[in-house]
Amino acid sequence: MSGGRVVTLTANPSLDRTLALPGPLLRGEVARLGVSSTEPGGKGVNVARALAAAGAEALAVVPADPTDPLVTALHALRLPLVTVPTGAPVRTNYSLTEPDGTTTKLNEPGTPLDAGLRAALAAAVAAAAAGARWVVLSGSLPPDTPEDWYAELVRAVRGTGARVAVDTSEAPLRALLAAGPDAAPDLLKPNAEELAQVTGTPEAALLADPAALSAAVARLHDGGVGEVLLTLGGDGAVLSTAAGEVWSARAPRIAVRSTVGAGDSSLAGHLLADLAGAPAAERLRRAVATGSAAAALPGSAVPTPELVDPAAVPVTPGLPVPSPEPVPAAGRDVP
């Protein structure tokens, strides 16, 4: 793998508590849980963990106290960290996983970020970005954070020479895309639901009509976004570049255990291939292979290289043909 550091910012990190249900979730009933787990999480943390598991140089920036259980867990994984103390505990998110891979998430709101904390985090990211290949801004924004904060961070990072990838949703995603071309990231990783949120085209229409999907992705490029890595769950993913290349990949059929963090691993796979100088088609292949490998693992575990099989991922030029039988896989996790 070629050299190059990737810096991730997780503005709203979490401890991810995964509870394994014995069957479908039944409201009002008692469930006898199987083996459960707690892992350090948040979308940017997941990306950094997946990169580090593959041998890449990753640095995670998080708002958390030095003694927070999240920080302790990440130190145990030997993941390089920059922490900005908040004086409050990191939130806990709960994932209820059913035997067929269906996942129900219960996410706490997180610690509010006041102006001082935001300034400290922005300074930490800018300092870490100097000499880095990529900066990843990933996940939801915690309470009291302006919706356009990611746009401010993209502009601030531009001068460092690092490229910027963003993976977020809802109001922060809409605000980012409304901020103008100078705030547009080099790489945006939406899923179909998020693409529908920002283009106004219903998700079902995007998945059923290649023309609608193409128009929606083109709107992102028109707004200044460089590459679009669109994850489509069991239907795989699409990679569209500003140069006009469009590639589609099918996800391999897998036994899904948890989709939590699978989209983050997809993004990590793309970055790993980019660090190695791979062309667009191979970046997409690695993204889908890594995300699918993550979906086959419990909780928010990230795959090691021996679990990732790019050869099992077919990649073709153009947009995908709608699948009559989608299967759950990478890309439907939420911030």
TrEMBL record:
GO terms for molecular function: ATP binding; phosphofructokinase activity. This is 1-phosphofructokinase. GO terms for cellular component: cytosol. Belongs to the carbohydrate kinase PfkB family. It comes from the Bacteria. It comes from Geodermatophilus saharensis. Pfam families: PfkB. Residues 29-305 form the Carbohydrate kinase PfkB domain. Residues 296-335 are annotated as: Disordered. InterPro entries: PfkB_dom, Ribo/fructo_kinase, Ribokinase-like, Tagatose/fructose_Pkinase. Residues 317-327 have a biased composition (Pro residues). Keywords: ATP-binding, Kinase, Nucleotide-binding, Transferase.
